[in-house]
Amino acid sequence: MSKAANQPVPVLQLRVIVEAEDFDAAIAFYRDALGLPEQAAFEGDGDARVSILDAGRATLEIANPAQKRMIDLVETGAPQRPGIRLAFEVTDGRGVTAQLETAGAVIVGDPRETPWKSLNSRLEAPAGQQITIFEELERLQDRTQRPGFGTNAQR
Fold first, then answer.
1. Which of 20, 53, 75, 80 has the most CB atoms less than 10 A away?
2. Strand partners, 121
């Protein structure tokens, strides 16, 4: 909290840390194949290595278990393991999915249109991380006008 007890201090960045046993394969996938620009890279004692990649604007999606199960079914047709999933918005969902498969990702769910009007695919990426590639097919302003969509602030 800031000096005023009821005023939160603004968050400046969301950083997600993925531990990768095969660091080089993960860098080749996320930086080179997916195209996330490298902001910085550091090396330390004992072969310690880190690369900080720019993933554009960050959001934190909080879903209850029923929503998580529904998204798994929509994107893959089956329940998936629990855990954090990364989702990357792109402008060509089918093309990026094919490109990432060529780069070593395993497709868990082919690109498909979702009920919320995006084109989503699910992949197993290096470091055992499940990711979603999504392409918005409808503007957020239009989506929030449809029944069942909106914000908690609107309720």
1. 75
2. 133
Domains of the chain: 59-154 (3.30.720.110)
Total residue count of the chain as it appears in this document: 155
Give the sheet arrangement for strand 118-125, strand by strand: 86-89, 129-136, 118-125, 106-113
Q: Which two tokens stand for residue 107?
A: 């497709």
What residues have CB less than 8 Å from 82, skipping those under 6 apart?
A: 68
Question: Are residues 34 and 100 in contact, defined by beta-carbon separation less than 8 angstroms?
Answer: yes
Distance, in Å, from the CA atom of 99 to the CA atom of 97, rounded to the nearest integer, reads 5
Q: What is the pLDDT of residues 40-94, one digit of tens each?
A: 999 999 999 999 999 999 999 999 999 999 999 999 999 999 999 999 999 999 9
Burial environment of residue 70 by CB neighbours within 10 A (0 to 12, 13 to 18, 19 or more): middle
The DSSP output letter for 76 is H
pLDDT tens sequence across 95-124: 999 999 999 999 999 999 998 899 999 999
- Of the candidates 126, 125, 124, 96, the one whose C-alpha atom is nearest the C-alpha of residue 111 is 96
